[in-house]
Amino acid sequence: MNKNLVIVESPAKAKTIEKYLGNGFTVLSSVGHIRSIVKKTTDGTPPIDVKNGYKTTYEVDSEKKKIATQLKKAVKESETVWLATDEDREGEAIAWHLCEVLKLDIKKTKRIVFHEITKTAIEKAIKNPRTIDMDLVQAQQARQILDRLVGFELSPVVWRKVPGGKSAGRVQSPAVRLLVEKEREIESFNGSFSFKVIAEFTHNNEIIKAELSNKFKTEEEANEFLNSLIGSTFTVSDITTSPSTRNPSAPFTTSTLQQDANNRLGFGIRATMSSAQKLYQEGKITYMRTDSVNLSDQAIAMAADFIKNEFGDQYSQIRTFKTKSASAQEAHEAIRPTDMRLERGSSNEYDQKLYDLIRRRTLASQMSPAKLEKTVITIKISNNNKTFEAKGEVIIFDGFMKVYGGGKKDPDILPTVKSNDILSIKTASARQIFAKPPARFSEGSLVKKLEELGIGRPSTYATIINTVQVRGYAEKGEDEGQPRDVITLNLRDNVINREIIQEKTGSNRGKLVPTASGEVVSDFLTEHFEQIVDYGFTASVETSFDKIATGAMARNIMLDDFYKSFHKLIEESGGIDRSTVAKAREIGIDPKTKKPILARFGRYGPMLQLGSGDEGEDKPKFAPIPAGRKIENITLEEALYAFKLPRIVGQTKSGIDIKANIGRFGPYIQIDKLFVSIKPLDPHTITLKEALDLYNAKLVAEAEKNIADFGDGIKVLKGRYGPYVTDGTKNAKIPKDIEPKSITHEQAKELIKEAPANKKRKVIKKAIKKPVRKTTKKKI
Fold first, then answer.
1. Residues of the chain with pLDDT > 70: what percent?
2. Does the N-terminal or the C-terminal CB of the chain have fewer CB atoms within 10 Å?
3. What is the pLDDT of residue 665?
4. Residue-by-residue DSSP string for 537-595
């Protein structure tokens, strides 16, 4: 019999912990959550019985039954069970579910927590076990129950009432609203421009760059000013020098790590958390879901020793940071390396970049401030009361910036001058500058905004950002922007030249842009379910979860406060007129058919419709709205151009037509039953040669994909993850010891026979037959 069984939620974490505990301990993994709320109960009661104190029925997930059986067997063979799941609410809930499934006594089973996977931390946790904290479990249940009720009751309303509506969630909906409001700020922004003047002066053969303190509203004013500089004398009228210091930021919390990884490394929020989790499970960093900026005394001492040895005593300054968030909970330390001396935390390049960022930020937080000297030189114009200013900055002592720089370009270093020095002008230019509209959210800046509003918590930010994109309510922009003309006036050798240059504007690359579906759903929820998208209300719900976690509020009281008013709105939603949601707009009349052209919202988003579809009329024709246009602003001319598709580009060598069109997933060409994406080409202008090249490349790819075809629907195909056999219903991976090209018909049939049904088909089949599940369920 095993003496000790330790259960964690991650196989990688299990491997790391087992090597520290040694003999006498077996470490197994539940591989995440082991149970979830059932979709349907066997006795007909609701999965969440609102009328009976929100009693919830759970079941072991189908893919976790084998794991549950293995864990039950291991429990029987062990004297002591230790639950070592993560220290946050999700981890506490997993520990509780394990007790329920494995028939462990909640009041006696040992629960251990640690925020870093090191030998010292594990041994300390083993010496200081506790029992499951049911307040944390209740807080997790409250979130899960509320999100389930909102999703299951509100999403069907969205499906019925909103064209193209997919779902609505308690936290994702306010996030979509933020994106939509930002987009409308940008659309309503009234652009303006002015002219900024920059000059280069020389003194003792050294160049001084300076900017005029004033800007001009018109080109004429700018031109007049440049003319006034011809023959003028330029004198240094004032020099001011002021010392300044720059202090380091606090060590990372979850949200600040996500923001900095996004801004500095270009990492998406989900990828950042995935990478951080791997580093944590390998024992390289502390727990990655935290609101805290605190460092342990041991960590501070470790950082100070390293900094003094590596850079010198003058670079070390012990600092403690206070967590600003009143809701900071669960984890007790910021994200930091477990060993400050370790420069490489991973052999994976992606993970190493994140590790390096975390390490540098932690070290910087315990280093001296940077000392700088800022200088401003004021330059007077002899025949004008306006002045130029040259600004520079010198780093006197780099301090923390030695390991964690500001990320900006080097400041201008100004040459030595004194008051009343006469300067010579080399060049001056007046450039047209445009007022910038509000910036769209990146993943990082959206997390920052959600945190400011109190929406979401460290464990939920990544899920929120991912969900709004998966649901099709927002997407990452890819547009590099459109060119625009910029006027520049250049003064050189007493002559002014006017030049038109181009710059790009309006780029949304890498930014989160709400889709048309996102805008329609957000407007619908704002009008009919305002409480769901209200920022203050959503934040107050998060605060209630925090209170439940500390035992300051009862779970069911909090659920009642939210659910009763919400459910009333659901009951009243039947009266919402679908025709008033995303109304169609008549753009004009088609000159050829004399039929109306409408811009309206369809199942897959905004589209154009030729013909009203009334009885007695021909079936309407449809076309997608061109990229960059909306229902509100598309013109008749643009709509008529869109209806030129589908277009016959030409024919293949065998005489088959090549049609170009735009579909749900973008522009494509169709040859018989074969569809080929033509991104980024335009179906209106794609040439026959371009189409044939893409078609031939597709044929080659399809030929390489098809390894063998047995003629009865069974095929051997080359897939993304290697060769496999399929009959169209089931897929089966080909074992490594079988050569795909030499597999026999009988071998293929046998592999398919043993393979499980494809998940998607299985779900559809279940939905049609609606079988009664024979599973063991537990109510709480």
1. 94
2. N
3. 80
4. HHHHHHHHHHHHHTTSS-HHHHHHHHHHHHHHHHHHGGG--GGGSS--EEEEE-TTT--
Quote the CA–CA distance of 15 and 10 in Å, as a whole number. 9
CA 616 – CA 482 distance, rounded (Å): 45
Closest alpha carbon to 334 in 303, 305, 309? 303
Helix (H, G, I), strand (E, B) or coil at 744: coil
User: Count of CB atoms within 10 A of residue 224's CB?
Assistant: 11
Residue 287 known to be catalytic = yes
H/E stretch holding 158 reads helix 134-161
Which pLDDT score, from 0 to 100, does residue 622 have?
87
- Parallel, antiparallel or unpaired: strands 422-434 and 370-381: unpaired
Picking from 212, 131, 529, 159, the residue whose alpha carbon sits closest to that of residue 380 is 212
Q: What's the pLDDT score for residue 616?
A: 63
Do 670 and 658 contact (CB within 8 A), yes or no?
yes
pLDDT at site 324: 67
Q: CA 176 to CA 467: how far, in whole Å?
A: 10
Which among 54, 58, 280, 287 is annotated as catalytic? Answer: 287
Beta carbons of 175 and 455 less than 8 angstroms apart? yes
The secondary structure of residue 529, as a DSSP letter, is: -
pTM of the complete model: 0.81
Report the phi/psi class of residue 728: left, alpha or beta, with left for phi > 0 and alpha for psi in -120 to 50.
left
Mean pLDDT of 465-492: 92
In 3D space, the residue among 770, 759, 177, 283 whose CA is nearest the CA of residue 518 turns out to be 177
DSSP states of 627-658: TT--TTT--HHHHHHHTT-SEEEEE-TT--EE
DSSP letters spanning 674-693: EEEE-TTS-TTT--HHHHHH
Higher-confidence residue: 764 or 138? 138
Residue 767 has pLDDT above 60, yes or no: no
Distance CA 500, CA 25 (A): 75
- Whether the bond into 646 is cis, omega within 30 of 0: yes
Categorize the per-residue pLDDT at 560 as very low, low, confident or very high, splitting at 50, 70 and 90: very high
Contact 112, 129 (CB under 8 A): yes
The CA angle 552-556-562, to the nearest 5 degrees, is: 100
Cα pseudo-dihedral 689, 691, 696, 700, rounded to 10: 140
Q: And the tokens for 475?
A: 């997407």
Amino acid at 745: H
pLDDT digits (tens, 9 = 90+) for 569-611: 999 998 888 878 877 888 999 898 888 999 888 877 888 998 8
Mean pLDDT of the chain: 89
**What confidence score (pLDDT) does residue 216 get?**
97
Which helix (H) or strand (E) element contains residue 605? strand 605-610
The DSSP 8-state label assigned to residue 477 in this structure reads B
- Average pLDDT of span 652-666: 90
Which of the four pLDDT bands, split at 50, 70 and 90, describes residue 764? very low
Within 13 Å and on the Cβ side, how many CA atoms surround 219? Answer: 11
Show the 3-state SS of 707-720: EEECCCCCEEEEEC
Name all contacts of 658-662 with Cβ < 8 Å and 24+ positions apart: 658/688, 658/691, 658/692, 658/695, 660/684, 660/686, 660/691, 662/623, 662/624
Q: Name, in order, each residue with C-beta under 8 angstroms of 102's C-beta and a sequence gap of 6 or more.
A: 68, 71, 72, 75, 81
Assess whether the previous peptide bond of 680 is cis (omega < 30° from 0).
yes
7 pLDDT exceeds 90? yes
